[in-house]
Amino acid sequence: MGRKMREIDAKTEVYGLIGDPVAHSRSPAMMNKAFREAGVNAVYAAFRVAKGMVRDALAGFRALGFRGANVTIPHKVDVLAFLDDVDDRARRIGAVNTIVNDGGRLVGYNTDGIGYVRSLKEETGVDLRGKRVLLIGAGGAARGVAFALADEGVGTIWIANRTAERAVSLAGDLARSADCKVEALDLSQAVRLCAEADVVVNCTSAGMAPSVDETPIATDALRPGMIVSDLVYNPPETKWLRAARAAGAVVHGGVGMFVYQGAYAFEYWTGLPAPVAAMRAAVEASLGLRADAEGDAP
């Protein structure tokens, strides 16, 4: 049987998610299950923070003694300006998805990329060395993924984005420290490069609930044998991935990355090993992928 939710008291530590939108997020289900499983007296909630309000949100976190936070769309890059410090990985990437309140100092980390690569390798068995990767999107999540893929030894990273300036910015930052070939592209060129890519990764919100009929690019060039990956985890299999599966591609959804980035955040916050299996079960139950056999509300 799962652990019952403990009573919130004066010693309960508070954590949260900031982003816009956040109503779709399964982070509260996952993190509250992790705290219960590990016996940590803590609670986690999602907070919708509009663009331009990040400074105020973090001032509130600091004043109220929040112990930590996750950061999601669209704040992963902008939040850096309002932190007291960031670790080397997050500084190199230029994006933060995890914040630790260290005695009043807000310190930023990035667990997106390492969570993504761990999930991709476990679920597909791919050896990334020398691979040609097409990355669709150039936001905060794309930054984490791009740098992690470069660290794995991929041969080429093409970055295609609707706003060309953001693709150029990410490509420039990546090229300064990566050994692989890096090229920024207009989104209109992405379909053509699908024919050359070994791995295609959607790092945009296209296809995320409630916009489930969207795809990041046209699906015409998807082909057998390539790996098609999507960071979107709600729904667990997007229209993009269904098209890829129908084309004979190897598909990789976003649930695993979501769980692992959260697991690394949990470990930064608590210093304890993350209860990964329980976290995954909570996410899958909240998405309707399994019965909630333990009686824990999502």
TrEMBL record:
Binding site for NADP(+): 88, 137-141, 161-166, 231, 254
SUPFAM superfamilies per record: Aminoacid dehydrogenase-like, N-terminal domain, NAD(P)-binding Rossmann-fold domains
EC number: 1.1.1.25
Keyword 4Fe-4S: no
Family statement drawn from the similarity comment of this UniProt entry: Belongs to the shikimate dehydrogenase family.
Keywords: Amino-acid biosynthesis, Aromatic amino acid biosynthesis, NADP, Oxidoreductase
Catalytic activity from the UniProt record: shikimate + NADP(+) = 3-dehydroshikimate + NADPH + H(+); L-quinate + NAD(+) = 3-dehydroquinate + NADH + H(+); shikimate + NAD(+) = 3-dehydroshikimate + NADH + H(+)
Start and end residues of each SDH C-terminal domain: 254-284
Enzyme class: oxidoreductase
Protein name: Shikimate dehydrogenase (NADP(+))
Active-site feature positions: 76 (proton acceptor)
NCBIfam families (UniProt xref): aroE, PRK00258.3-3
Role description: Involved in the biosynthesis of the chorismate, which leads to the biosynthesis of aromatic amino acids. Catalyzes the reversible NADPH linked reduction of 3-dehydroshikimate (DHSA) to yield shikimate (SA).
Residue span(s) of domain Quinate/shikimate 5-dehydrogenase/glutamyl-tRNA reductase: 126-206
Keyword Oxidoreductase: yes
Domain Shikimate dehydrogenase substrate binding N-terminal residues, every copy: 17-99
Pathway given in the UniProt record: Aromatic compound metabolism; 3,4-dihydroxybenzoate biosynthesis; 3-dehydroquinate from D-quinate (NAD(+) route); Metabolic intermediate biosynthesis; chorismate biosynthesis; chorismate from D-erythrose 4-phosphate and phosphoenolpyruvate: step 4/7
Organism listed in the record: Candidatus Reconcilbacillus cellulovorans
Pfam families: SDH_C, Shikimate_DH, Shikimate_dh_N
Molecular function terms from GO: NADP binding; quinate 3-dehydrogenase (NAD+) activity; shikimate 3-dehydrogenase (NAD+) activity; shikimate 3-dehydrogenase (NADP+) activity
Quaternary structure, from the entry: Homodimer.
Chain sites annotated for binding shikimate: 25-27, 72, 97, 112, 233, 261
GO biological process: amino acid biosynthetic process; aromatic amino acid family biosynthetic process; chorismate biosynthetic process; shikimate metabolic process
Superkingdom assignment: Bacteria
